[in-house]
Design brief:
heterodimer, A: T-fold, 9-stranded antiparallel beta sheet, two-stranded antiparallel sheet, 7 helices, 13 strands, B: 499 residues, alpha+beta, 11-stranded antiparallel beta sheet, 32 strands, 30% strand
Chain lengths: 286, 499
């Protein structure tokens, strides 16, 4: 069995890897602060996967589920709770990547209180910290490894602590058909859960959509026999608009309830932007 | 370490445990993913390929992966540069390789690499194809135009309608006679049309004596401005055969309107086997076998690919001695998009009535069983000309080696079907080539990537340009910034044979 791995990347970034977790992080500020933050993150990271695996069955159960004890597990539940309270099906796994990012960012800031900026990117779910007067730019891509389709400038005033992307083009299963949904929220766990659930809502009835029970693809999936999208053929402009509208309606509600700050929904070359008083993406009609 | 311990099975046993249903439990990390065949674990680094646990490389482009790796959100400050390209997992394609036409010089890249312990050579070039075109399959039963009719783009003939297939209309576009055999404009428009179709772009076409079309690889066809949604579930007779059992007890007669074969349930073999009472309704057209009618109407854009818009018009007669008042009649198309439910009145006239839910369910199920209509584009070309001289000094040996299957032909890494017989006539699905793979020269002719992969020893026997072989490592290093690295297109077989 392989343990946690830490590698240095170019541009002052560190790559932390253990099993399915891949994190790229960086702190900015005085050199001793950056070093302290990285060392603390690496120490904390080494134990995270084992903690999660110990409580995996509770984390895979639909919310409300039995309580959990680990700090990352508790962040996962906390990130999902407001959405479960709205009557939406969700398991704590919807926030796993975001919760890991939040935990590492909190560890870094605790060890190095004078960091000016920091990010922890866990496979596209990002926890960010920006001190007043500083900015951090994040580029968005609808397709993993593909062209950028937007950019976002995070400031202290923006209130953004998490930027998460979820959808069919990622590596997790989706109940919906969105190519990608990016959500901005106060923390990454909340953004991660919301991105998953808004991507699930981007849907329409169409013969072009092929689905399969999640457990037929992954026998241990937290989604059980629920149908997940395996292929989306060519949709009509009407279908694309209707599917985006479904997702946007959920996003608008959650912005109004103060659960998230904004969302960008992308499907088949079309895009909808909700909430966010900052330009993250240009709207493209289907 | 012995050969045996390097085998896939041996490696698989070191990292994973076989469970039932072909599932492998991966022991690489504490998650212990149980991975089904053809899938990867939560990390995307380990996958179950043909019952063996294999390592994938999600961060390395141009690599042979079971599935594409995880999401990457690049930061504005710089791209991922933490990994090197592994030469043993790289395949150099002909896209952008340039061409040495007329090929008295060796091909642009002759790449040497070791794969599975076999010294392998890949000859990489961009071919100039005067003899080339596309075959377009359009999933619709609608009549697009008569067989052999001219297909035009911008008024110029670029091809013709060819033999229809089951559920699909076929076009043959391009070819040497339109590219270089006609007027200059005809050649240019043909070249432009082929290039657009090969790039996955939409093209507007018209068919003499037929209809206007919008065609795009991987997209639904648009006929006279109306987008096709569904392929038919089968011909009218097949539809009767599939759904007869489900109609039994809910209707007394079903007529499935179809341009090819219209089916009549009670007269059809399926209705008879179910012991249904004859309905006495005779449809127009020529009876083929009981309950199966040809030519009930003219081809068109109405019900089931006919010109029918009022389905009752296909009823020729209702036999008063057989039919009865109250007979429940369903008329439907082969896609379920059009349907009409009637009940015969006292004068045995069909009168439209509310369709019962049980009947509507079966009509909807016809629709559910239809596959989405698509256009697919297959590029077809002859590579048997001077291009071969860039590969070998004795071209006929290459032709023979390709024909025998020893030399593998790919286009931008995409698999090619090699037509049996003389020459090197190949076909490839344009959707399987990387983007921006095709170009053109003013002749006009198309430029397309082509790669020949074969064992080094065989290459020597064929009279290959042995002195020009460059090791793949040197090529990847030497090209530096000019090298465009892309992910392997999922589903395409890896060109290097397994041992």
């Amino acid at each position: 069995m392989n343990g946690a791995l830490v590698q240095r990347l170019a541009g002052g970034r560190a790559h932390l890897h253990h099993g399915p977790i891949d994190v790229v992080l960086r702190g900015y500020g005085p050199a001793d602060q950056v070093a302290a933050a990285e060392a603390a993150a690496a120490r904390r990271f080494a134990a995270i996967l084992d903690e999660l695996v110990a409580e995996l069955s509770a984390l895979r159960a639909p919310m409300p589920a039995p309580p959990v004890t680990g700090t990352v597990a508790r962040r996962m539940r906390a990130g999902c709770m407001p959405f479960a309270a709205q009557g939406v099906f969700v398991t704590a796994m919807a926030a796993v990547a975001g919760a890991v990012a939040d935990e590492l960012l909190a560890t870094m800031r605790e060890a190095a209180p004078n960091l000016t900026r920091a990010f922890v990117n866990d496979g596209g779910d990002i926890a960010v910290f920006v001190a007043p007067g500083e900015t951090l730019d994040i580029a968005l891509a609808v397709d993993p490894g593909g062209q950028r389709d937007g950019a976002l400038r995070v400031t202290a005033e923006s209130g953004i602590g998490g930027v998460a992307t979820s959808g069919r083009l990622g590596r997790s299963f989706s109940l919906g058909i969105a190519d990608a949904v990016t959500v901005l929220a106060r923390d990454a766990a909340t953004a991660d859960a919301a991105a998953t659930l808004i991507a699930n809502a981007v849907d329409v009835a169409s013969p072009a959509i092929i689905r399969a029970p999640a457990e037929s693809l992954d026998p241990d999936s937290d989604l059980g026999a629920r149908l997940v999208t395996t292929r989306v053929g060519t949709l009509t402009p009407g279908e694309i608009a209707a599917a985006l509208e479904q997702g946007a309606a959920r996003a608008v509600r959650w912005v109004e309830h103060g659960l998230i700050l904004g969302a960008a929904l992308r499907l088949a070359g079309a895009a909808r932007v909700v909430g966010a008083p900052f330009p993250i993406l240009t709207e493209t009609p289907p | 370490m012995s050969e045996h311990r390097l085998s896939a099975a041996a490696r698989s046993q070191r990292f994973g445990q076989a469970e039932g249903e072909g599932i492998i439990r991966c022991d690489a990390c504490p998650v212990l993913c149980r991975i089904r065949p053809g899938r990867s674990g939560a990390c995307s680094r380990y996958a179950n390929q043909d019952g063996h646990l294999v390592r994938t490389d999600p961060a390395i482009a141009l690599a042979h992966q079971v599935e594409v790796g995880g999401p990457v959100v690049a930061f504005a400050e710089g791209d991922w540069d933490g990994m090197l390209l592994d030469p043993s997992r790289a395949f150099v394609t002909g896209i952008g390789a340039g061409t040495t036409y007329p090929d008295y010089k060796p091909a642009p890249f002759i790449v040497g690499a070791t794969h599975h312990g076999v010294d392998t050579v890949t000859i990489v070039t961009e071919g100039i194809f005067s003899y080339c075109g596309v075959k377009v399959k359009i999933d619709t039963d609608r009549h697009l135009g008569p067989e052999a009719a001219a297909v035009r783009a911008k008024g110029e003939q670029v091809g013709h309608v060819t033999t229809a297939e089951y559920g699909s209309q076929m076009l043959s576009l391009g070819g040497v006679r339109h590219l270089t055999g006609g007027s200059k404009r005809e050649g240019n428009v043909t070249c432009e049309t082929l290039l657009a179709l090969c790039a996955g772009e939409a093209v507007e076409l018209t068919i003499d004596g037929g209809h206007a079309l919008r065609v795009q690889a991987g997209a639904a066809p648009v006929v006279d401005g109306r987008e096709e949604v569904r392929m038919r579930v089968g011909c009218g007779s097949a539809t009767i055969g599939i759904f007869a059992q489900q109609w039994l007890g809910h209707v007394d007669e079903v007529i499935v309107v179809d341009d090819h074969i219209t089916g009549v349930l009670t007269e059809h073999q399926a209705g008879r086997v179910l012991g249904m009472t004859a309905g006495g309704i005779r449809v127009r057209g020529r009876r083929s076998t009981p309950g199966r009618y040809f030519q009930v109407a003219n081809p068109g854009l109405g019900w089931g690919g006919t010109d029918i818009t009022d389905p009752l018009a296909i009823i020729e007669s209702i036999d008063a001695k057989i039919a009865w008042p109250g007979l429940r009649l369903l008329l439907t198309s082969t896609t379920g998009e059009d349907a009409l439910y009637c009940v015969l009145d006292e004068e045995l006239r069909p009168v439209e009535a509310t369709m019962p839910d049980a009947v509507r369910l079966v009509v909807e199920r016809i629709g559910e069983n239809c596959e989405p209509s698509l256009c697919t584009v297959i590029f077809m070309a002859g590579a048997g000309g001077s291009l071969r001289a860039g590969v070998t000094e004795n071209p006929v040996l290459l032709t023979r080696s390709v024909a025998s299957g020893e030399t593998r032909v790919t286009m931008g890494g995409a698999p090619c079907y090699v037509w049996p017989g003389g020459g090197i006539t190949i076909m490839a699905d344009v959707m399987k080539l990387p983007k921006r793979a095709f170009g053109h020269v003013p002749t006009p002719a198309l430029v397309a990537p082509i790669e020949f992969t074969l064992p080094r020893a065989l290459y020597e026997q064929l009279g290959g340009h042995m002195g020009d072989i460059v090791p793949v490592e040197a090529l990847l290093r030497g090209l530096g910034e000019q090298l465009r690295v892309e992910g392997w297109i999922p589903g395409n077989p890896w060109p290097f044979a397994k041992p």
